[in-house]
Specification:
The complex is a heterodimer of chains A (about 375) and B (about 230). By secondary structure, chain A is an alpha+beta fold. Chain A is about 20% helix and about 35% strand. Chain A folds into 2 domains: about 230 residues, P-loop containing nucleotide triphosphate hydrolases (Rossmann fold, 3-Layer(aba) Sandwich), CATH 3.40.50.300; about 120 residues, OB fold (Dihydrolipoamide Acetyltransferase, E2P) (Beta Barrel). The N and C termini of chain B lie far apart (about 45 Å). With about 230 residues, chain B is an all-alpha fold. Classes of the chains: A alpha+beta (about 375), B mainly alpha (about 230).
Chain lengths: ~375, ~230
């Protein structure tokens, strides 16, 4: 199942002109407020009728302005999780979930209401009214309701934006499970790079109504040329690691990455589990020789792939570390002092405490 | 019922019957018109709006006379209805119900329209993405949420139909047992010597019925609003 989108729509002060495709997994639609993310999602759901365009899921056209095709929203089989949950206030949680299933095509393999309520941790809320739920609970009910409609595609428009960090942390694991267990594509709108880095398999960066960049998540996040689009402070690559051993006496976890071993503050996962790490570019230090007598535990040999010098004092450096990519942010001055260029070998140093627990997610092929 | 004379009792019973029919019959139309006025986007919307509100502004005698012209036995619609369905409005209780319905219609539409405008269209969009077509979205989402408005509008229109006088007396006159509703009866009693006691009793009943309607509508609307808010 694959989503294909091409849209053109002109508003008074803004023109939307995008084309992209979203494979299975999570495709993140990333961009600042006003870049057109919600408009794209509404057009895919059929809540907005663009002036011209084409939307197809698995080869079935839902919108084709040339052929005069417009499938109304209720016949698109697209689940939509809104930023503001939009639970029906006059129904109980159970009735809200049943509303999702009520119009769904019959299926014997689809998970039951009870199974979905269990997965989302809302089974104890079924008899409550939406008005009495917390923001995180509402969002999980909204996700369950959308899933019970057995969608071919799931749209999520900033589902975590209105929640505080603790509630976000509560929902992210459910989204990771959804990504890894569901076969349908998920289009995930966000302006938070942390969420995108944790969930996305594919990233599409929108800027002023156009696609500025699109590609596999690991490649985009490690691309120094993408740094201005993603935000200098937030930039950082993701890579996959396998838990090798716990070292309780140090409070550390040993992980294997393609270029060697890393030690991180205790990661709560069983040995052998694959996790996704996000390493901020500003937490990576470069050295031309293997450092000696240094407190940092994590030193990985690397080859410089690309350097982008910004307008300020900084430079973004993309590194090949084994099969993974790492992004480092250093000063232009140090680039000159070290005399490195694309192709140079060097060592990437990261502090063990640099990876925050919220930057560690469940594993998924991050594929470059 | 020895505290009411048969004449008085017949006026009360007739008023209740007229108001009930007026309300029940106009309710579906009022919901439809309120929906069109709240959600419709077409040229002529303001014309429809004006037309609906006209009975509120026109002198009731004018409304009554217009009804007589259109729905009288020789009026275009009245003639057609009599020929086709054998339905006669002129000088019958049905005409009193029609006059009450027309006079109460703007109040009913107004209350329902306000409640429709208060419904968040985002909830209806959410229902659509879950597979509900327009009918089911209306039946399961919109309708329950506008129920307080519908009840408030219906009770207002009921009270208006009970008390309708000018248009009724112009359209269907003041025939005892046929078109002599509460206000017409009060008026008639006041015209004859010694009728004040009867008039006062009917006035008391009018006040009681109106108060009951208001209290009931407030109570019902609040109860439903609470249920919807889920508190």
């Amino acid at each position: 199942m694959k989503l294909e989108v091409a849209l053109h729509h002109e508003f008074a002060a803004f023109a939307l002109d995008v084309a992209f495709s979203a494979p299975a997994g999570v495709t993140a639609l990333f961009g600042r407020s006003g870049s057109g993310k919600t408009t794209v999602v509404n057009a895919i759901a059929g809540l907005l009728r663009p002036q011209s365009g084409h939307v197809a899921i698995g080869g079935t056209a839902l919108l084709d302005t040339r052929q005069g095709v417009f499938v109304p929203p209720h016949r698109r089989s697209i689940g939509y999780v809104f930023q503001d949950a939009r639970l029906f206030p006059h129904f109980s949680v159970r009735s809200n979930l049943e509303f999702g299933a009520r119009f769904a095509p019959p299926s014997e393999t689809a998970p039951s209401l009870a199974a979905i309520a269990d997965m989302l941790g809302i089974a104890h809320l079924l008899d409550r009214r939406p008005a009495g739920l917390s923001g995180g609970e509402k969002q999980r009910v909204a996700i369950g309701r959308a899933l019970l409609s057995r969608p071919r595609l799931l749209l999520m428009d900033e589902p975590l934006a209105s929640l505080d960090e603790a509630r976000k942390g509560e929902i992210l694991p459910y989204l990771e499970r959804l990504r890894d267990e569901a076969a349908m594509p998920i289009l995930y709108v966000s302006h938070s790079l942390a969420e995108v880095a944790r969930l996305a398999t594919t990233i599409i960066v929108l800027r002023e109504g156009k696609v500025a960049r699109a590609g596999p998540a690991a490649a985009i996040l490690a691309d120094p040329q993408a740094v201005p689009d993603l935000g200098v402070r937030e930039a950082g690559a993701i890579f996959e690691a396998t838990i090798v051993a716990q070292h309780p006496q140090d409070g550390l976890t040993e992980l294997a990455v393609s270029a060697g071993r890393l030690f991180l503050p205790r990661v709560d996962a069983p040995t052998g589990a694959r996790i996704r790490l996000r390493i901020h570019a500003h937490d990576v230090i470069l050295a031309t020789q293997r450092p000696q007598g240094m407190s940092a535990l994590n030193i990985l040999p690397a080859t410089i792939v690309d350097i982008r010098e910004g307008e300020g004092p900084g430079a973004a450096v993309s590194l090949a570390c084994g099969e993974d990519r790492l992004l480092a942010r250093v000063t232009r001055r140090s680039i000159r002092a070290m005399g490195v260029a694309p192709g140079s070998t060097c060592f990437a140093i990261l502090k063990s405490t640099a990876v925050a627990p919220s930057d560690i997610g469940a594993g998924w092929e991050v594929g470059l | 019922m020895d505290w009411l004379s048969p004449q008085e009792w017949s006026a009360v019973a007739l008023s209740l019957r007229v108001a009930l029919w007026a309300t029940a019959f106009s309710l579906p139309f009022a919901v439809l018109v309120a929906l069109v006025l709240a959600r419709g986007r077409f040229p002529g919307l303001q014309l429809l709006n004006g037309l609906v509100h006209l009975p509120l502004i026109l002198p009731p005698v004018v409304t009554g006379y217009l009804l007589l012209l259109v729905f009288g036995r020789r009026g275009p619609v009245g003639h057609f209805l009599e020929q086709t369905f054998g339905l006669v409005f002129a000088f019958r209780w049905t005409g009193a119900a029609l006059a009450g319905a027309v006079m109460g219609f703007p109040l009913m539409v107004r209350a329902i329209r306000l409640s429709i405008e208060a419904v968040d269209p985002k909830l209806e969009a959410a229902a659509a993405t879950l597979g509900a077509n327009r009918f089911w979205t209306f039946a399961l989402i919109t309708l329950p949420m506008i129920l307080p408005g519908i009840i408030a509008g219906a009770i207002l229109a009921f009270a208006k139909a009970m008390g309708e006088f000018g248009a009724t007396i112009t359209f269907v006159s003041n025939i005892p047992g046929q078109t002599r509703t509460l206000p017409s009866a009060i008026y008639a009693f006041l015209q004859v010597p010694g009728g004040e006691a009867s008039a006062l009793r009917l006035v008391a009943i009018s006040v009681a019925l109106s108060m009951a309607a208001l209290v009931f509508s407030e109570w019902g609307a609040r109860r439903i609003a609470r249920r919807i808010a889920g508190a």
